[in-house]
Structure formats: structure tokens, C-alpha cells
């Protein structure tokens, strides 16, 4: 299997610009703030910076509603600031990955403004319009952000499709003119010097040939749209066309966000000939703790068991070997904080469990992604009041489940929100223990996590045992040990059903690594009969007690 592509050896750091660093004290992070913090990112040791959308946007969905793909959102700065950021990232020998949001645009994009002018407008078919059926929405599809996927345009009497908010109309990939306008825009950014694209919900762009109602589970008003629109019949055709028109002409890295993609889908999207994308973000391990009641979706309080997690990650590791390339992630701007979700964020175990989870991920095969603050062991926000949350997904689902459908009590829903709201990831980056965690002098757009006096960059840089320094070591190991990139993944015999300890092996022709991870807060014993001659590569405890594993202990032996 070829593992020589630069992006296979890279580590990506994801920045959510709105929450990273505010340089002009308006409470909103910006490009200049990122420029001022590049030394910090470089010190961590990563290779690529992925920026969430920074394009002009009315901000209904924090930049995932783009009104001009070739302009910078004024809150974030100017195109000159962007150019400076790009140049400085390159000077520091790092690369930059842009977010590409082309399943939908904003309803304030010029294309949509023209399209909604009427049936005869030349941009009408840039979006997806349908006549009412029996005076109603064309189908019963439910949007990702609650309510119908259809909004009526009174002037023309037709509905337009939006899988997300009504301000995020879906682009019509059936239109060759629309597709080529997207490729032109991508080439414009690539010519500017950007090094890659993270493609938002890219496997939703090919809609079904025939629009039909989906099935509705008990308690739901609308049908789940995801199985209806994901991995559609023309998706590979579109991605191959995009690849020929854009990727082939530049040395880019591409990662597709692909909800509902199976390993078989991923083998096509991220095939090793790179005829489509380089890798995908799969969602399965992020959905293991979803509510058993489909009407509640991700909103629940179940924790993933270790056997579920191991079985799932092992399935992906094995299925993609020699066929496609994995991306590895615990966190992003849509997911709760990993230490709160899969580890233990109480003060006694936060650091050790954050390091254990990092070890699990960073020794697997694929390209690791680190989301801002993950390298500090930042935790969920734990806000008590709904008014502290700003994300439209959270606010809409509360309205839907508590007020409209009355499926969940307010107290239960607040607990679910504390566990799953996307705002858990979006609280401002914690730089130091000064006002607003050093993020801004002004009240930030979203409250800072109150634990910032204990958890922040300044404290962690000064402490050689911090989560930050542990991530730094993991990154160095990946850069220096080819087995982490190219080794075979294998479970250790008998570990498949262990509910407490996850142990796996990575092995190539010269090196064998054994990764041992205690997922519990208990001291337990596991004897794997490992050879006496072995080196401890990294561990989150200073002393090695052999077969005794302390709470959340992680250790990696080289054999
Ligand atoms: C996925 C993005 O990650 C999320 O933040 C956004 O709300 C939706 N796509 C819609 O663009």
C-alpha cells in the first residue's frame, strides 16, 4: 500500500475561527488572531491547518451558509489578511485546508437571489425547485435542523429544497453550469495557493432521481432524510468530474465529510488511485451513543461501550487497509469534547484520560485530526441555561422535542444538550487565566468554559506533563516512526470482547508496536505475555507496572 503521499504522513489541526482568537476585541475570533497564534500551532508540530468557513456569510449556521465563495467574512478580516495568513502558514512549512460548502449556499448568495426571481431565470436550475403535491410540501423529508426540508416561495408557487436551515438552499448538482461554476471557484482558491479542501456533507450532493416520501418512525413528524439523500446514484460521477476539473491540476489534499458512508462507500470515495477524494470523515463511531429511539436521533445520555467502539474502529481499520485511506478524529466543531464523551472529565482523571484517548487515536492508521483545544483536554461546556447556547441545531431541537412534540421533558433535554450540543466544541479557545481566557477583551459571542483558569494554553505550556506536551510527543512519534503510517493493524488475541482494556498491534517488516489502553477508572490486570525485551515508547504514567494498569493508563511498547 502506498503511504508516500504527503497528506498520509501529516497531522491536521482544525481551527474554528470564530472561537480561536479575537484580535480586534469585538468578541469574535478572526484571521489576525490566527496569525498571532501560528507559533503555538507550529510548536504543537502539526502539518496542515483546516479552517472552518471564513467566507462571506449571514451566519445563520456559523459560516456554513455562504453568500460569496470568493470573499472573506468581514468579522474575520479582509482578503489581504487571508493572504498574509496563507503566506505565513507556508513560511512556517505548514499547509492550509479550506472548508468547501457546496451542497448548499446561503439564500443570500447571488445565485439564489437570481434563482428565486422566477422559473425563467437562467440560474433557476442552480437550486432544486418542485411544485407542491396536493397543496403541500413535495415530500415528507425532515431537515437536519428540524422541520421540513422544503420552503415555499410564494412568488413562483414552488418549493425549494434545503437539507439544513431554510436559509441554506441546496445547490442542484444536475446543472452542469452550476457544477462548473463550483469547479471554477475551487480552482481560483487553489491558484491562490491553498493546499486542500475539507468538503462539507459532500456525499449528499447527488439527490435521488425520483423524490419520494421516506418512512416515518413513531413519534416523528418528518422522515429522516439522510438515508434518502446520502451516497446518491450520481455521487461518484460528480466527484470524478470534480477531480478531473480541479484536483488533477493541483497538489491538493481532500477530505470529504460523509455522513452515512460505510467502509464500502469509503473505498470508492477515498480509493488509493485518488480518482475522487483522498479520505473521508466517517460518522459511525460518532453515532454509537445515539438514542435508541430514532425520533430522538443523537439526543440522549447513553455512553458508547468499549466493545462497540473497538468493533467499529477495527472494522474501519481493516476494511480500508490497502484499499483506501482513513481519517482519524474524535472531535470537530460539531461534536462534544472527547474527554467528556469517551473519557472522564472530573479533575482527578481528566488529564490521564485525555492522554489515553489521544494514544488510541494517534497510533491508528490514517491521517489524524486535532480540533482546537483537544490538545489541552478541553471539556464540554456544561452550561445550565438554554440561553447560553447559540447553535441553531440545539435551539431548534429543544423547540421541537420539548415544546412542539412534547417527547422529552425540559430537564431531560437540558441534560441531552449538555452532552451533545455542538456548542460544547465551540466555546472560545482557552489561552490563559486572564479575562475571557485571553480570547478577547470583550464579552465573547459564546461564553467561555468556566474551567479556563485551570485548563489553558499558558498553564499547559509550562507543565511538561500536560496534555499539550503529550500530543506533541505523539505527533513527533508519528513523524519519525513509519510503522504508525504504514503498519498493519491487528487486535491482540482475546481482546475483542474486553469491556475495560483496548489493546491493538501495529506492525510492518521491521517494527511491532503494542498499544494498551485502560478505558476505566479502576486499576486492573492484563497479562499479554509480551516479550521481556521491549521499549516503552510513550505512556501517560511515569512508571511502568507491567501487567498492572492504573486508571486510564495508556502505554505503547516497541517490540
Ligand atoms: C456539516 C458541518 O460540519 C456543520 O457544522 C454544518 O452545520 C452542516 N454541515 C451544514 O453545512
Can you describe what's shown?
- This is Alpha-glucosidase.
- GO terms for molecular function: alpha-amylase activity.
- InterPro entries: GH, GH13_cat_dom, Glyco_hydro_b, O16G_dom_2.
- This protein is 29% helix and 15% strand.
- The relative contact order is 0.10.
- It starts with 11 loop residues before the first strand and ends with a strand.
- The protein is globular and about 75 Å long.
- The chain contains 18 helices and 22 strands.
- The protein has an eight-stranded parallel β-sheet, covered by helices on one side.
- It is an alpha/beta fold.
- The chain has three domains: 6-105 and 178-379 and 450-472, Glycosidases (TIM Barrel, Alpha-Beta Barrel), CATH 3.20.20.80; 110-161, Alpha-Beta Complex (Oligo-1,6-glucosidase, domain 2), CATH 3.90.400.10; 488-558, Golgi alpha-mannosidase II (Immunoglobulin-like, Sandwich).
- Bound molecules: 1-deoxynojirimycin.
- Residues 61, 64, 101, 164, 200-201, 257, 333-334 line the site of 1-deoxynojirimycin (NOJ).
Short précis:
The chain is globular, with a radius of gyration of 23 Å.
- Rounded average pLDDT: 97
Pairing-aware structural class of the strands and helices?
alpha/beta
Q: Can you count the helices?
A: 18
**What is the fourth-level CATH superfamily of the largest domain?**
Glycosidases
How many β strands by DSSP?
22
Integer tally of domains: 3
Main beta-sheet annotation: 8 strands, parallel
At CATH's second level, what is the architecture of the largest domain?
Answer: Alpha-Beta Barrel
Oligomer: single chain
CATH domain class name of the largest domain: Alpha Beta
